[in-house]
Design brief:
Chain A: Residues 43-315 form the Septin-type G domain. Chain A: Pfam families: Septin. Chain A: Keywords: Cell cycle, Cell division, Cytoplasm, Cytoskeleton, GTP-binding, Nucleotide-binding. Chain A: InterPro entries: G_SEPTIN_dom, P-loop_NTPase, Septin. The complex is a heterodimer of chains A (336) and B (357). With 336 residues, chain A is an alpha/beta fold. Chain A has a single domain (36-72, 83-114, 123-142, 151-319), classed as Rossmann fold, CATH 3.40.50.300. Chain A has helices at residues 2-9, 31-43, 59-66, 73-76, 125-142, 172-181, 199-215, 230-240, 281-291, 293-313, 318-323, 328-332; strands at residues 45-52, 91-99, 102-110, 158-163, 187-191, 245-246, 253-256, 259-266, 269-272. In chain A, a hairpin with a 2-residue loop joins strand 8 and strand 9 (269-272). The longest helix of chain A has 21 residues, at 293-313. Chain A is globular, with a radius of gyration of 24 Å. Chain B is of the alpha/beta class and 357 residues long. In chain B, helix 8 (270-279) crosses helix 9. The radius of gyration of chain B is 30 Å and the shape is elongated. The termini of chain B are far apart. Chain B has one domain: P-loop containing nucleotide triphosphate hydrolases (Rossmann fold, 3-Layer(aba) Sandwich), CATH 3.40.50. The chains are: A alpha/beta (336), B alpha/beta (357). At the A-B interface, helix 6, helix 7, strand 8 and strand 9 of A face helix 3, helix 5, strand 8 and strand 9 of B.
Chain lengths: 336, 357
């Protein structure tokens, strides 16, 4: 009986007790992957991306290009007048998009007015506050006695920071903002409207930016300290050598060599957005969506959010925090 | 022969003052021209590249661009570089005033007080020289024209742009320029130009207006002026690199998708900007002299007080006072003498014919 059972549970091949070619001991644990996958597809994914940068850097167009649909604030609101607001506003627009049966609730958080005023001191404060507020909301749900089955996740997973393509170096505003916010959220810096720069200018600019980020101790995504293993590190090192990505966005299609491509048409040529010889949009898209989306969410929930949570729960008790092995500067990161 | 009765020197009736313009021309060619151009705009808008492209020279050979950390500490500087350019015997002494640090700081509230102080200072100096005793070698360092660089990335003018232009439009000729125009497609460029012109109107900013062509100019010139006026603000691209394109060498920028030619009017307005500057250099100087300088001068003199804190002026004022005092003294003494004479006369008469020994 027992023998029969084991054969029935296992495969159809009897004799050999060991050897990789024989599925003798196949239990079927890996079927769980399929179950998780089905569940995830039913549940859908949530992704919250914040875009920060001065007016006119192509933030809305880039979002539309990334998700190949009109997901930006500008596409939803009928305003044709693009007036610069007097103070920074935080505007969230959510969309449900679907691809091959996978549903995603994408929220794009826009920050019009950032960096546009004459006096831009403390313009990062409203943004910091918003990010912390989302963490707070999640925390409140978590510590509730009667918790929801699925806590709605409005935490900002990724903040794309748009650097103007001056070709020289970062501006004081860029350094200040990234320095403060890289401690509470994943920052992905990009060079906006990169079709202003020739390839040499682009390489020089990127090198300069990387130097300045290093000199100021700014850790952008993918952060070195969160690499899990050697394989991760290898992949992420390659990415770290390429950031910031020099991107060009467009939601208009043109005919190029018999194919319809997204691009920008000028008198001296057509810039193809998805052509890696022209710009690095494809790398950004792959990073954010195709390869590292889950990783971005994981780092947000297991590291940034946890830091916030520990700090909040130990509000007046830094001794306990130290006992938990969390260094002071991590706690202080959420200060504005 | 009736024809050309004033051109032939031997004709009776020929005076010869028709030659005057030639004499003026020859004298000014010998003397040379002076022109001061100020460039203002945020870092990284291609100002230096454009100036080098415009005048086919390198005005900034030892340039070092500071990093972000250094920029935090810096205030706006004024850097003037002078270069002598000669072309076909005509000498131009060009001074380019650069304003590094403008708009870089996180708080740009005060970034233009230095610039305005510089412009006023040049007017003050000229006023002082003009009112001085030795007027032979007055150097004209007044700012004749200011190129204001607008970023092509925004949707129009930024608050800083508006504030700055309003602060200087009564002191200097403002020529707005859209920088790095190869960021824009043709449609985006037109839209931006219209937007900027609307905003300039809306805020009452007075930019430099090209004078209409005189009715006696030829048609080509009139047409050129029309085209120039319709293209303001000029959307320019600068470069001093030679690129091989379509078999010939052109100045341009090489991208993977094509070459932007600086001197191609279909690609950008560089040629128009250069034409405008060159054909209107004289007019820019005139407007600076007749309008901006005169405004400054009348304001300054109305405010009264000493003309300047340095120079011999204070002594002259005192000299005047001393002179007046001396004159008053003289008059008094003359009156006294007259009185004494009158008295002596009376005494003389009273004493009769006594013997005077």
């Amino acid at each position: 009986m027992i023998g029969h059972t084991s054969v029935a549970v296992g495969g159809l091949y009897g004799e050999k007790a060991s050897g990789p070619t024989v599925d003798f001991s196949y239990v079927g644990i890996d079927a769980i992957l399929e179950q998780m996958r089905r569940k995830a597809m039913k549940q859908g994914f949530e992704l919250n991306i914040m875009v920060v940068g001065q007016s006119g850097l192509g933030k809305s167009t880039l979002m539309n290009t990334l998700f190949k649909s009109k997901v930006s604030r500008k596409s939803v609101l009928a305003t044709s007048q693009e007036k610069i607001p007097k103070t920074i506003e935080i505007k969230s627009i959510s969309h449900d998009i679907e691809e091959k049966g996978v549903r995603m609730k994408l929220t794009v958080i826009d920050t019009p007015g950032f960096g546009d005023q004459i006096n831009n001191e403390n313009c990062w404060q409203p943004i910091m506050k918003f990010i912390n507020d989302q963490y707070e909301a999640y925390l409140q749900e978590e510590i509730n006695i009667n918790r929801k089955k699925r806590i709605p996740d409005s935490r900002v997973h990724c903040c794309i920071y748009f650097i103007p393509p001056t070709g020289h170096c970062l501006r004081p505003l860029d350094v200040e903002f990234m320095r403060r916010l890289s401690k509470v959220v994943n920052i992905v810096p990009v060079i906006a409207k990169a079709d202003t720069l020739t390839l040499e200018e682009r390489d020089f600019f990127k090198k300069k930016i990387r130097e300045e980020l290093r000199a100021n101790g700014i850790d952008v995504y993918p952060q070195k300290e969160f690499d899990e293993d050697a394989e991760d590190r290898m992949i992420n090192e390659k990415i770290r050598e390429m950031i910031p990505f020099a991107v060009v966005g467009s939601d208009q299609e043109y005919q190029v060599n018999g194919r319809r491509l997204l691009g920008r048409k000028t008198k001296w040529g057509t810039i193809e957005v998805e052509n890696i010889a022209h710009c690095e949009f494809a790398y950004l898209r792959d990073l954010l969506i195709r390869t590292h989306m889950q990783n971005i969410k994981d780092i947000t929930s297991s590291i940034h959010y946890e830091m916030y949570r520990v700090r909040r729960l130990n509000e007046n008790n830094t001794v306990v925090a130290h006992a938990n092995g969390i260094p002071e500067h991590h706690l202080a990161a959420h200060e504005m | 022969m009736k024809q050309g009765q004033f051109t032939n020197p031997e004709t009776p009736g020929y005076v010869g003052f028709a030659n005057l313009p030639n004499q003026v021309h020859r004298k000014s060619v010998k003397k040379g021209f002076e022109f001061t151009l100020m460039v203002v705009g945020e870092s990284g808008l291609g100002k230096s590249t454009l100036i080098n492209s415009l005048f086919l020279t390198d005005l900034y050979p030892e340039r070092v661009i500071p990093g972000a950390a250094e920029k935090i500490e810096r205030t706006v500087q004024i850097e003037a570089s002078t270069v002598e350019i000669e072309e076909r015997g005509v000498k131009l002494r060009l001074t380019v005033v650069d304003t590094p640090g403008y708009g870089d700081a996180i708080n740009s509230q005060d970034c233009f007080s230095t610039i305005i102080a510089y412009i006023d200072d040049q007017f003050e100096r000229y006023l002082h020289d003009e009112s001085g005793l030795n007027r032979r070698h007055i150097v004209d360092n007044r700012v004749h024209c200011c190129f204001y660089f607008i970023s092509p990335l925004g949707h129009g003018l930024k608050p800083l742009d508006v504030q700055f232009m309003k602060a200087i439009h009564n002191k200097v000729n403002v020529v707005p320029v859209i920088a790095k125009a190869d960021t824009l497609t043709l449609r985006e460029r037109e839209r931006l130009k219209r937007r900027i012109l609307d905003e300039i109107d809306e805020h009452g900013i007075k930019i430099y207006h090209l004078p209409d062509a005189e009715s006696d100019e030829d048609e080509d010139f009139k047409e050129q002026t029309r085209i120039l006026k319709a293209s303001i603000p000029f959307a320019v691209v600068g470069s001093n690199q030679q690129i091989e394109a379509k078999g010939k060498k052109v100045r341009g920028r090489l991208y993977p998708w094509g070459v932007v030619e600086v001197e191609n009017p279909e690609h950008n307005d560089f040629l128009k900007l250069r034409t405008m500057l060159i054909t209107h250099m004289q007019d820019l100087q005139e407007v600076t002299q007749d309008l901006h300088y005169e405004n400054f001068r009348s304001d300054r003199l109305k405010r009264g007080g000493r003309l300047s804190s340095h120079g011999p002026e204070p002594e002259e004022m005192d000299k005047d006072m001393i002179l007046q005092e001396k004159e008053a003294e003289l008059r008094r003494m003359q009156e006294m003498i007259a009185k004494m004479q009158a008295q002596m006369q009376k005494q003389g008469d009273g004493e009769g014919d006594g013997p005077h020994v």
